[in-house]
Amino acid sequence: MSAHDAHPWIRLCRVDDIPRLGSRVVERAEGNLAVFRTAQDKVFALLDRCPHKAGPLSQGIVHGESVTCPLHGWQLGLEDGRARAPDEGCARRFPVRVDEGVVYLGLD
């Protein structure tokens, strides 16, 4: 990790600790985060609140690079947190990187 990184990187877990097509919750006083793993082992992190009715995205269904909220079926992109049309809204995204199978979370 470079001293020039914009975020302090926190070691979270190994990629294999996150279920494929599932998530892991990171509890924080400022609001929980949902860290997702796709079928292709890509890892993403979003605030664990759907922008619609604050449903827990960590309990949603991961498909491709999207997650479907378990409450009302809103689909959000894991890359950017944006709701898929016709819905509108955005879940806050957090930077993630994987280095030698270890997941690091960028927090500000």
Automatic annotation (TrEMBL):
SUPFAM superfamilies: ISP domain (SSF50022). Residues 10-105 form the Rieske domain. The keyword Metal-binding applies. Keywords: 2Fe-2S, Iron, Iron-sulfur, Metal-binding, Nitrate assimilation, Oxidoreductase. InterPro entries: Rieske-like_NirD, Rieske_2Fe-2S, Rieske_2Fe-2S_sf. Pfam families: Rieske. NCBIfam families: nirD_assim_sml. This is Nitrite reductase small subunit NirD.
